[in-house]
# Entry
Amino acid sequence: MQIVYHIGANCTDGDKLVRSLVRNSDTMKPRGIHIPSPSKYRRLLRETIQNLAGASPSEGTRDILIDAICDGDGVQRLVMSNSAFICPPVRVFEEGMFYGQLEMKIRALTLLFPEDEIHIGMALRNPATFIPALWEQSKRKTFEQFMGGIDPMHLRWSDVLGRILATAPQARLTVWCNEDTPLIWGDIMRRLIGIDRETPLSGEYDLLSTIMNPAGMKRFEAYLRTHPPQSDVQLRRVIAAFLDKYAIVDEIEEEVDLPGWDAQLVDDLTRGYEAEIAVIETMPGIDFIAP
# Structure
């Protein structure tokens, strides 16, 4: 069986992706692809991992989990999503480490299904907006306590991805940039579900509808009916053109307001992130979804 974990990162899609995926649950089930509601597995997996406390599951645990999560038999691919699989936002920089719990959680998630093929999907986000978004959800600490002494300029997504690959070398790792999701939403969904471009999909434009005004969405949908794209590249160009004209500005622009941060730091973080993405795209073992 194939087990697909979408593990975030925190503060990327805000559970929009799992909602779009679940819209396809009924149509994918006859194919052996199960996309259960998060209520079926989030608490169950969290409590199972906590109870194991680092130990390996006993024989039969895997089958008990499958029975509890899936409705019916014939499961060939199980798709699960939780941006807090690794940790909640408040703990991302705990003890001065960027995702310090990463190895423990990835190891635990893979041990739950030891004989299965593991797929991991993860979005990355520019630290210039990632850190403020995390902080917005973590204000029970001071900003200095929240950061744990970490210099934002030293954050490296490539290190996080390398640690995932080292912890679960047998896993397939698919990565994309949160900033690109309006252009590649359908592609992300298809990679996680495990279907090709020709297979009908519900929710392919769910994210787009949240950042494009209603009149623009109507024109976009009408255009697709009369001019169906012949490739993913062509579709992305069409989306980009419509967003350029009909995007809701407040939904796509982000203001950064953090203690001690200025425009220069935001620019430096953004340039560093863009340079790092160019490196990540070439990292062995990573399937990178580019727009």
In short: The chain has a mean pLDDT of 94. The beta strands are 2-6, 33-34, 77-81, 117-124, 172-177, 286-289. The longest helix spans residues 263-280.
